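Slide 14.
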Amino acid sequence: MGTISLEHGDRLFWLGRYIERSFTTLKAIQSHFDQALDDDPLLYQKYLTAFGLADTYGNRDTFLKRFLFEKENQNSVAFSLRCVYDNGIVLREDISTESLSYLQLTMDELERSKDLEKGLRLKLLALEDTLYGFRGCLEDHVYDLEKKALIDCGQFIERLDLYFRLRYSDEAVLPELKRLLERLRMIPKHTPYQYNTAHLSTLVELMGETNITSYAGTAITSLSCLFEPV
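Slide 15: predicted structure.
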């Protein structure tokens, strides 16, 4: 394996984070969308509160539209997908032209989903399918295990951050935390990206706790500081 530069490692890591941010945000919005139809049209405010965001939306439909499609909104699926694509262009030789093509298909699918009045729920399921396809393409075409580990670490850190903020169950959190720790063991010593052992110890200790999500604040802090350039 060759040496992975700081810039290269950074792009691999954030490719993983933005892939997961796109996917998990989409899943959360789908879940919220279903609940809001049957329950409280202001339920979206709880989602915003989980991320410390002000309600500048006013109603559910505006929230859904902007969080899905607004390219300038750093919290939106559209923004995250654009960041994936921008990193993917630079990493074309690492992730393959096939993966990049699938990513373009995903972005096209999002663009086709914009009309909120015509079967949005089914369109979001189609978008989810293309995201699954893109992630599967990465599994097939990223052959360098060290580079794949960097992408995976980005994905699992982002996923866990979102899971803790949204108070997912311990049954959902614990397997993802185990997967992150497994991938960290695969990060080579020669890459400029190294994990912080103190914050790693905190996360390991949390695995022995019951009601892990009650430690969400501690976990989020450790995740944010865990995997960083040195």
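Speaker note: The chain has eleven helices and two strands.
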